[in-house]
Amino acid sequence: MSDHSPDPARLSFRAGIGGEPIVSDIHATPALAFEPAPWGAWVVTSGGHPVAGDRLDVRVEVGVGCCAELRSYSPTVARSTKRPRKAAVSSTRTHVSVASDGMLTWVLEPGIGSDGSNHVSDSLIQLASNARLLWREEFLLERRFDEKPGTWRSRLRVTRDSWPVICTDLAIGPVSPLWESPAVLNGAGAVSLVVVVDPGQGASEWSSTRTTVGSATGMALPLSTPGIQLLAWGDDLVDCREAVERMLPACGVAPWVEARWHGEPGPVVPGLGGEDHLVVGGDAGLSGSGSRYQL
Amino acid sequence: MSESLLLLLSDTRFAAGSSPNSASRSGGHSGGIEAACAAGVVSDLPSLKAFLFGRLSTTGVIGAYAAAAVCARAGTLPDSMWRGMEAEIDARMSAPAARRASRAQGGDVFRMALSLARSPIFDALGRATIAYSQQPHHAVALGAIGAVAGARPEDAATAAAVASVDGPAAAAQQLLGLDPDQVEAVQAGIKVEIEALAEHAAAATHRPLSLMPSFAAPALEFLVEAHLERPQRVFAS
Questions:
Q1: Which value does ipTM take for this structure?
Q2: Which is higher by pLDDT, B37 or A112?
Q3: Is B156:B109 a contact under the CB 8 Å cutoff?
Q4: Using N-to-C axis directions, what is the helix angle for B138-148 and B3-10, rounded to 10°?
């Protein structure tokens, strides 16, 4: 959208000899910066952003054959403002592209809607036809006793070779008229959404799964293209994340997904199946021990 | 669109309707209501009203926008755009059971339409779906029928939106033994929302398909998937 920041935070990776990510372009903004790591980069958000009226723009490119991960240290807290002339809504627009033979793991810490905030997270991920993706998006409402909750809306669209893979729009918080509907989220205070796209797997390898953990209800739903959505919602993000973790082994994802979920860093060369994935760098690869993906 | 065709498309006894005795080959469709009743999510009129509002605001919105877009553009759509519309709806229905139910209902309606009329629009839809061993999504079939019948996009949107709530309402009335007059009063209350939705959907037919609304209904999808494992079912979905 044209009303977003003309100066987005940018990060581009190209592949090293073995597919490891090499930063080819990096640009920080006052609200968001990247800290390169051997396996990709840490996303570092300012504690003061996003605040009502902010329009943050993030662009990430993963080059041909590159395997990159993005992680963050801490949650992103959306805040309201007392300034009367400020717009009530804050937004983050994230545009990600993953080129041919590339792989992206995006597991940022959750977004938190606090203090009457109204935040929209809008993510577009464009994948090449044989690119792989593990995308985790979590958001919850602040639960301080004397504070009214904010609203966090998450729109996610993933395309593969320009064809839609998943297009979903979820919101928690009082601004959303659907939040409390028994057909939608039933007033849940936390959501954990995971999308896996893996063209290396056949349709028969994915399976629907459902579970409940504490307050959380979870389900894994194979998509119409090679991929699966895992979604859990409830009062507590810990329960939601536990529900997703329980479903991961049961829904048929490849081993690299579970490894990435559990935070085993190190790029993996795509195109090699199952246990024959090759660790080519990063902490796990360099340590030379304990990785089930090493040849 | 002639009102009689709109009424026919929305009739729960018509193909793709909710009645187990409907003309549907795939069985009646409750839109998740049967599972919701079994789980206690819907047990009375207030909970039915909340559930129907959630259904209309998610799957109903997607169906209305898709039907209006197809109706407005059907005469000029190349085959690739028909595939694109089907893919956009697939991407907005994460639950495999929901996709199957939508395609089963679309197939029933499309089959009925083919028996009534021939049109290059139907031929194009057939090339984009049946040629790929698929049946069209319900909303796409409604939009195509609307275009062939000379309907306005808002009429096609209305038909899709009505289909998203009237069938489930009739199913709930049957399953819970609710007072039919009171269920109709609930439906009448939702009709105001449907009119506004159809107007918005018709006004957005020129926008790219990728910008169609994509409101998710996780609880509904959970119920639709759970329904398949029930040993005894009145409705197919």
A1: 0.90
A2: A112
A3: no
A4: 160
Residue A6 pLDDT level (bands cut at 50, 70, 90)? low
* Neighbouring C-beta atoms of residue B168, cutoff 10 Å: 28
Q: Best of B85, B214, B224, B228 to disrupt the A interface by mutation (most A CBs within 10 Å)?
A: B214
The torsion of the CA quartet B118, B119, B121, B127, rounded to 10 degrees, works out to 50
Q: Whose CA is closest to B28, among B112, B115, B101?
A: B101
d(CA B1, CA B59): 23
Q: B46-96: per-residue pLDDT in tens?
A: 999 999 999 999 999 999 999 999 999 998 878 888 999 999 999 999 999
Q: State phi, psi for A11 to the nearest 5 degrees.
A: -150, 125
Distance CA A165, CA B83 (A): 13
What tens digit of pLDDT does each residue of B111-144 get? 888 888 889 999 999 998 888 888 999 999 999 9
Q: Give the angle A206-A208-A212 at the CA atoms, nearest 5°.
A: 135
Q: How far is CA A248 from CA A255, A260, B51, in A?
A: 10, 11, 30
Backbone angles phi, psi at B172, to 5 degrees: -65, -40
Residues of A in contact with B92 (CB under 8 A): 167-168
For an interface test with B, give the residue of A153, A158, A167 to mutate (most B CBs within 10 A): A167
| Token code pair at residue A103 | 């792989």
Cα atoms in the 13 Å half-sphere on the side-chain side of A230: 32
Of the candidates A157, A182, A185, the beta carbon closest to that of B41 is on A182
A224, two tokens:
């119409």
Helix (H) or strand (E) holding A9: strand A9-15
Identify the band that residue A283 occupies on the pLDDT scale cut at 50, 70 and 90. very low
Do the chains contact at A229 and B94, CB–CB below 8 Å? yes
What's the distance, CA A159 to chain centroid? 15
State the burial class of residue A105 (Cβ atoms within 10 Å of its Cβ: 0-12, 13-18, 19+).
buried
Query: Quick check: B57 contacting A, CB < 8 Å?
Result: yes
Please report, for chain B, the start and end positions of each structural domain, with discontinuous segments joined by +: 60-227
The CA distance from B29 to B40, in Å, is: 19
Helix (H) or strand (E) holding A95: strand A90-98
